[in-house]
Amino acid sequence: ICASIRNRVRHPCGRDRPPAPSASLTLHKRAFVRISPHQPEWLLWPRRAGNARRMLTPQDLLERFGGVARGTFLQQFGCSRRHLANAVDAGRIRRIRPGVFALPRADRKLVKAAAHGGELTCADALRARRVWVLPEPDDEVHVWLGRAGRQHTHLDCTCIAHRSAGKAQVGLASVATALIHSYRCLTDEAF
Asked: By Cβ atoms counted within 10 A, which residue in 1, 70, 152, 159 is the most buried?
């Protein structure tokens, strides 16, 4: 086999392309697939018998991203607006507010934080990330909105807004951010 054919890599869409200098190869279900440097390895299209491909569904992506995500973020991974609308109509995912989607079984506090416009933070985020904190029986949801984030009112809104540097998305705040908010918010004994 000549060197130019041997160095070609099978692309997921079926075309042969020479490998990019920074591309890596991986063995995915007995087939070598090119991974671009910007494409996460776990996001490869699964291969089935007959070389058929199955696109990841909005439910699959939401499960991988913690149950809640923005529609624009899901669109970066191949879900069109039509796919999202069909999944909402079929009841496989929920539209929390325009542009934000969640699984039907997603955590209630996480969904409320996303409906409010930010990330779940404070003690609830620490519990979700398996950091031990004292149990505190409160129904209030602590939401990090970033420095200039917009608050969205929703039904039964008892959310406590935290504002600090950074830009909040939806989902869980990082451990460092949640610790800072817990220090500012909780009592000395609780922190």
From this structure: 159
pLDDT tens sequence across 105-144: 999 889 999 998 889 988 888 988 998 888 776 778 889 8
Does the model's pTM come out above 0.70? no
Question: What does the longest C-alpha to C-alpha distance in the chain come to?
Answer: 71
Q: Measure the CA–CA gap between 43 and 28, rounded to whole angstroms.
A: 11
Which pLDDT score, from 0 to 100, does residue 49 have? 45
- Region for 179 from its dihedrals, namely left if φ exceeds 0, alpha if ψ lies in -120 to 50, beta otherwise: alpha
The beta strand positions in the chain, using DSSP E, are: 9-10, 16-17, 24-27, 32-35, 68-70, 94-97, 100-102, 119-120, 142-144, 160-162, 171-172
